[in-house]
TrEMBL record:
Gene3D superfamilies linked to this entry: NAD(P)-binding Rossmann-like Domain
Gene designation: fabG
Molecular function terms from GO: 3-oxoacyl-[acyl-carrier-protein] reductase (NADPH) activity
Pfam families membership: adh_short_C2
Keyword Oxidoreductase found: yes
Superkingdom to which the source organism belongs: Bacteria
Keyword Transit peptide belongs to the record: no
E.C. number(s) listed in UniProt: 1.1.1.100
Protein name: 3-oxoacyl-ACP reductase FabG
Source taxonomy: Bacteria, Bacillati, Actinomycetota, Actinomycetes, Streptosporangiales
Assigned keywords, A-Z: Oxidoreductase
């Protein structure tokens, strides 16, 4: 039976790949998007995760279309890279609000139906930067590291109700965002990746698919790196 799935930030990049991977395995997938158009073949809902009202409405629309959401992937996020001495306070708080507090809004709304069903999968998309750090990304790294503590606390809260909460931590992924880096920057990053290549969005999507599957029923509170070894030991 098809499960009702909601992927935030699911109209491009990693989020779209996750949505398509889960749809291909038979799930009924809804995606949220903040700008642009909904992806072809998927149920799209316009939603900004910095608004609790928009998150609530997105879930209501997904539930009306596919039934109670059984799998949620909190993927929506932003970057505002700036070195700390030059970083305005709103540059820091905007990233925290979208990435970390956005995950809180999504997970809290997802709990409503999952607690009634006594089952569910909550998967947060963090980053290797959460553990490794990255100059110019103190705001982004803080938001992504916060997601790990948030997820592990939720895993303890919700485990007795059959709900798992896990984190995927991608490394350097070939997306439109990373394509904006110049060749020298990309080469410097690749030198530190033992597997010697960037991840594809599909690499991340397959890890999410596993955590959403019955095969991962006894995994909760985990951080799964999909980084080619970049963050090894962190």
């Amino acid at each position: 039976m098809a499960r009702s799935v909601l992927v935030t930030g699911g109209n491009r990049g990693i989020g779209l790949s996750i949505a398509r991977e889960l749809a291909a395995s038979g799930d009924a997938v809804a995606v949220t998007y903040r700008s642009g158009e909904p992806p072809e073949g998927l149920f799209g809902v316009k939603c900004d995760v910095t608004s609790s009202e928009e998150v609530d409405l997105a879930f209501s629309k997904a539930e009306a279309e596919h039934g109670p959401v059984e799998v949620v992937v909190a993927n929506a996020g932003i970057t505002r890279d700036t070195l700390l001495p030059l970083m305005k306070e709103e540059t820091f708080t905007d990233v925290i609000d979208a990435n970390l507090t956005g995950s809180y809004r999504v997970a809290k709304r997802a709990c409503r139906g999952m607690l009634r069903m006594r089952r569910g999968r909550i998967i947060l998309v963090s980053s290797v930067v959460a553990m490794l750090g990255s100059a110019g990304q103190s705001n982004y790294a803080a938001s992504k590291a916060g997601m790990i503590g948030f997820a592990r606390s939720l895993a303890r809260e919700l485990g007795s109700r059959g709900i798992t909460v896990n984190v995927v931590a991608p490394g350097f992924v070939a997306t439109d965002m990373t394509a904006a880096l110049d060749a020298g920057q990309q080469e410097a990053i690749l030198k530190n990746i033992p597997l010697g290549r960037a991840a594809t969005a599909a690499d991340v999507a397959r890890a999410v698919k596993f955590l959403a599957s019955d095969d991962a029923a006894y995994i909760t509170g985990a951080v799964v790196p999909v980084d080619g070894g970049l963050g090894m030991g962190h």
